[in-house]
């Protein structure tokens, strides 16, 4: 089936009786044109179904008005991605999304598509200038988000250290003194910084005791049992925090399995605000990472580079998170529990909560 033929500037000129040059100036809003002529040309262009040819625009200006974007599609990043798309739309730019295991191949594709810039979350914390050499050598603006790399490129993300510090401070102010921190993968800079921030607060308070749980890896299949046994062996612990809300849910479930009530016997702080606050089982006190602000800041920085006539120094922008206090934290019990369940209720609790837990935090509802 033949495609409809798009009208050209010549077609509009013939229909309006003005020159092609006049039509071009009207459609590009350039030069002084009589209001009546301008209105007539615009009306005819709309009636004929004229659309700008972005390929020609790219050849003429060296810009394609597209931005290459890459990040995971989980609860947190899906919000960032949506906000980035909205910010680009305000600037009449198109988002070209691509996610590949091989980031070098992905960046090469962005270059081939002649994008005007790149916003991405690099999976490689150790990535340096060599890793981004194809992009940097071409002067293509790039902004990384969430995970800071070693490369001399712009970064926008959460102040993860401050967030961990705030988690501990909140629990301490409630009266808790004995904490557990369920740490995330050590290869991820946000995980390390959040853990270090929590630990830093505890070091600054002599009456605070912190124990770490988890092996700081991506493998969490056996962590439910590990968390249960850890809390079972430490009945004196009355509060804990975790790398992100999904980990905090595991900690919550393990606490229930030992017979602790949340928050009456055990308080929990998550990170990320990716679980809906109206879910009765997971009304999590958490740190909101302000995804819209991260996205807006990343896009603004990218366009500063696109419009710059000279090279700009790379910036490191870390946005303070906001503590959202919900029902998972409270003052500690007047007397820590010394007798936990003698039987192992883990299987029962897991069967009751695991399906809802997995659906909730994996989908980012």
Describe this structure in words.
This protein has 365 residues and is of the alpha/beta class. It has 13 helices and twelve strands. The chain has a six-stranded parallel beta sheet with strand order 2-1-3-4-5-11, with helices on one face. A four-stranded parallel beta sheet has the order 7-6-8-9, sandwiched between helices.
E-strand count: 12
- The global form is elongated
Beta content: 5-15%
The rounded distance between the terminal residues' Cα atoms is 43 Å
What is the arithmetic mean of pLDDT? 83
Return the string of H and E elements: HHHHEHEHEHEEHEHEHEHEEHEEH
Which residues sit in consecutive blocks of at least 5 with pLDDT less than 50? 341-365
User: What topology, given as strand order, has the largest sheet?
Assistant: 2-1-3-4-5-11
In DSSP terms (H or I, runs of 4 or more residues), the helix count works out at 13
Class by alpha and beta content: alpha/beta
Largest sheet: 6 strands, parallel
Whole-angstrom Rg: 27 Å
Helix content: 40-55%
Could you give the topology of this structure?
Layout: H1 9-16, H2 20-27, H3 35-48, H4 54-61, E1 66-70, H5 75-90, E2 94-97, H6 103-112, E3 117-120, H7 133-137, E4 142-145, E5 154-158, H8 160-174, E6 178-182, H9 189-203, E7 209-213, H10 223-233, E8 239-242, H11 245-257, E9 267-269, E10 286-288, H12 291-306, E11 316-319, E12 322-324, H13 346-363
Parallel strand pairs: 1-2, 1-3, 3-4, 4-5, 5-11, 6-7, 6-8, 8-9
Antiparallel strand pairs: 10-12
Helix pairs in contact: 1-2, 1-3, 5-12, 8-9, 10-11, 11-13
